[in-house]
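Quiz preparation item.
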């Protein structure tokens, strides 16, 4: 891809987080049922996990929480460090792997031209299975598909759902909640929720040129190593990143919203992200801006993790129970 790699890499370092949660020990939680599920998003097969308190009656309905992992993460970390802690409080909880991450399918590019057919036909094709792509528009499709699957769970109160997201997943959580009235509570932690502020240095003309190059087949349909940055997992689609504007959805957020930030957040400016989101919501809906001592990754371990988890648990208990 023909672009100024130095500009892009510096910006990626600001908001493109590996978002890998530090594994924390968690003993098997007695009284929680866990099952693996498969669902579909735009033709891609995605994998998820459902956590349900044991012993509930068939007709009993509980509030639910959808968890969204961040850039470079996967649901395995959420399954260990977050989902059981919410489920033991009496919530049905769903985690899932975003497309091309974890156990979910990725993107597919056929290497040969598909034959023209009048309707549906079985064809043998070969191609590339593309993994580790960070494309927020596709991620939002996946989060919407996860929510659509989740609301049909037998023991779930379909109109009483919380959405929780961390880092880039927190940004996806904001947009998902803004677009669905069934979401009654939102928690976003350490999330870059103002993409236009972060990517403002990339000229619009440069992005338009990339789009033309992609449409003409001069660059690959999905990014690869040329968009990577040392120390970060995955390949951000910079066209999709520039077009993604979560701040445009702030006025549509109607769910009580808890925003958690690291006091010394080093990966983006929290003042124009979490704090700005809180200020936009204040006075219109219930909102709280909680700042926890430390840097970004300090909220994934030790006391920072415990404080963030407790704050999220309390928020969901207050607004979903």
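Solution:
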């Amino acid at each position: 891809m023909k672009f100024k790699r130095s500009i892009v890499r510096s910006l990626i370092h600001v908001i493109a987080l590996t978002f890998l949660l530090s594994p924390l020990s968690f003993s098997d939680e007695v009284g929680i049922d866990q099952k693996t599920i498969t669902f579909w998003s735009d033709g891609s097969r995605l994998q998820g996990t459902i956590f349900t308190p044991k012993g509930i009656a068939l007709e009993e309905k509980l509030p639910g929480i959808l968890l969204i992992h961040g850039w470079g993460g996967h649901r395995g970390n959420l399954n260990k460090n977050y989902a059981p802690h919410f489920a033991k409080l009496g919530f049905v909880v769903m985690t899932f792997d975003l497309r091309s991450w974890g156990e979910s399918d990725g993107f597919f590019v056929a290497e040969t031209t598909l034959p023209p057919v009048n309707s549906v036909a079985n064809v043998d094709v070969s191609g590339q299975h593309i993994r580790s792509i960070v494309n927020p528009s596709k991620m939002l499709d996946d989060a919407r598909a996860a929510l659509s699957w989740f609301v049909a769970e037998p023991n779930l109160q379909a109109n009483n759902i919380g959405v929780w997201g961390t880092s880039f997943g927190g940004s996806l959580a904001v947009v998902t909640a803004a677009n669905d009235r069934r979401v009654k509570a939102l928690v976003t932690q350490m999330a870059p929720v103002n993409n236009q502020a972060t990517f403002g240095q990339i000229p619009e003309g440069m992005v338009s040129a990339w789009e033309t190059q992609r449409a003409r087949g001069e660059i690959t349909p999905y990014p690869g190593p040329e968009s990577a940055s040392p120390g970060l997992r995955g390949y951000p689609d910079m066209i999709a990143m520039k077009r993604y504007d979560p701040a445009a959805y702030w006025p549509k957020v109607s769910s009580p919203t808890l925003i958690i930030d690291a006091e010394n957040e080093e990966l983006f400016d929290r003042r124009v992200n979490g704090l700005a989101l809180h200020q936009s919501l204040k006075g219109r809906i219930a909102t709280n801006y909680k700042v926890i001592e430390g840097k970004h990754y300090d909220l994934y371990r030790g006391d920072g993790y415990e404080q963030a988890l407790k704050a999220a648990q309390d928020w969901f208990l207050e607004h979903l129970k």
